[in-house]
Amino acid sequence: MKNVVFVLGAPGSGKGTQCEKIVHNYGYVHLSAGDLLREERAKPNSKHGELIEDYIRNGKIVPVEITCSLLKDAMEKSGREHFLIDGFPRSDDNLRGWNRAMSNEVNLQFVLYFECPEDVCVGRCLKRGSAGSGRSDDNMESLKKRFKTYVNDTMPIIDHYQSLNLLRKIDANRDADEVFSDVKVVFEAAK
Ligand SMILES: Nc1ncnc2c1ncn2[C@@H]1O[C@H](COP(=O)(O)OP(=O)(O)OP(=O)(O)O)[C@@H](O)[C@H]1O
Ligand SMILES: O=c1ccn([C@@H]2O[C@H](COP(=O)(O)O)[C@@H](O)[C@H]2O)c(=O)[nH]1
Ligand SMILES: [Mg+2]
């Protein structure tokens, strides 16, 4: 049985940064759903490249069949058993699609949630964009749409996991190493 930790939080809350640290300390495989979609978009023969670019630029959530199959393939290819799934599930459609395809194959350990104010997150993404991230959504126009989607579609999923007592909330509005010291407490408790 594969083990999964979902990693959620607003755009720019630090999910990718903290996942890298978790990989080094706890040996999980980091799968960012956004990174997998960007890789798929970059393939010259991708069936979904144009759709993915439109969805990403406009902060919309790509149909779950596409995202879930990229995640499933990456999990299988890794040959490993412990996964951090970063930035997924971010809507009811994502959650239902994942449960349909994966609930018999994976054990959800918990959901790590990075809480961070919108203005701080926006500042981080804009800084990342001006430092040359190359992301087509690190600009103010896309960020407004991304946050709308986050509040309308992803926050209910976070509330859902809270109601199941699976949510592990971390204050992400601090230096990355301070954030990680709280992350470690969560992973140590799960050992
Ligand atoms: N605790 C922190 N303090 C200041 N800057 C941070 C912190 N954590 C991450 N950053 C920076 O903020 C930017 C966003 O971080 P990161 O990519 O980890 O966030 P994310 O949640 O994965 O974002 P997205 O949802 O857009 O993929 C990066 O440039 C990163 O270096
Ligand atoms: O499960 C997912 C994950 C991501 N997307 C799309 O990608 C962008 C960027 O995601 P990041 O997590 O910030 O890298 C996101 O705004 C969505 O458009 C998705 O559709 N489904
Ligand atoms: Mg990220």
Distance between the ends: 16 Å
Strand content: 15-25%
Shape: globular
Helix content range of the residues, please? 55-70%
Structural class: alpha/beta
Major sheet strand order: 2-3-1-4-5
Low-confidence stretches: none
User: Mean of residue pLDDT?
Assistant: 98
* Distinct ligands, ions and cofactors found in the model: adenosine-5'-triphosphate, the ligand O=c1ccn([C@@H]2O[C@H](COP(=O)(O)O)[C@@H](O)[C@H]2O)c(=O)[nH]1, magnesium ion
**Tally of strands:** 5
Query: Major beta sheet, specifics?
Result: 5 strands, parallel
Secondary structure tally, helices: 8
Radius of gyration: 16 Å
Strand-and-helix sequence, N→C?
Answer: EHEHHHEHEHHEH
What structural keywords apply?
UMP-CMP kinase; five-stranded parallel beta sheet; alpha/beta; binds the ligand O=c1ccn([C@@H]2O[C@H](COP(=O)(O)O)[C@@H](O)[C@H]2O)c(=O)[nH]1; UMP_CMP_kinase; binds adenosine-5'-triphosphate; binds magnesium ion; 191 residues; 5 strands
Provide structural commentary.
The chain is 57% helix and 17% strand. It is α/β, with parallel strands linked by helices. The protein has a 5-stranded parallel beta sheet, with helices on both faces. The model has no long low-confidence stretch (mean pLDDT 98). Bound molecules: adenosine-5'-triphosphate (ATP), the ligand O=c1ccn([C@@H]2O[C@H](COP(=O)(O)O)[C@@H](O)[C@H]2O)c(=O)[nH]1 and magnesium ion (MG). The site of magnesium ion has 5 residues, from α1. Adenosine-5'-triphosphate binds at residues 9, 11-17, 34, 87, 124-125, 128, 175-176, 179. Residues 32-62 are annotated as: NMPbind.
